[in-house]
Design a protein that fits this description.
The chain is mostly beta strands and 118 residues long. The protein contains no helices and eleven strands.
């Protein structure tokens, strides 16, 4: 059974930085895509950043230039480095992985809270 364990969330002042980590385990297949979504109260979950097994990245327009996604294939871990945080970045952040298993299914972490105070 695939398990995703996230860490690194917390409370930070506007302009500060945080680094999220998400480690996957229990997967029988090679991981294809990894990434992060976020969900703020009253808003729909949105993609923040994603990275393929080839290292190709994509970002939401709202975080471009401030967030950087990276992955360590050997550790099955994805990171999200967040700089210049804004109060509107406050949300629960969920990591996801998609395997090369032919199903297209995404596996999700339990979420980690990021709160940015003004």
């Amino acid at each position: 059974q695939v398990q995703l364990v996230e860490s690194g969330g917390g409370l930070v002042q506007a302009g500060g930085s945080l680094r999220l980590s998400c480690a996957a385990s229990g997967n029988k297949y090679v991981i294809k895509n990894m990434g992060w979504h976020r969900e703020a109260p009253g808003k729909q979950r949105e993609l923040v950043a994603g990275i393929t097994d080839g290292g190709r990245t994509n970002y939401a327009d709202s975080v471009k230039g401030r967030f950087t996604i990276d992955r360590d294939g050997a550790k099955n871990t994805v990171y999200l480095q967040m700089h210049s945080l804004k109060p509107e970045d406050t949300a629960a952040y969920y990591c996801f992985v998609r395997m090369w298993d032919g199903t297209g299914r995404d596996y999700w972490g339990q979420g980690t809270q990021v709160t940015v105070s003004s």
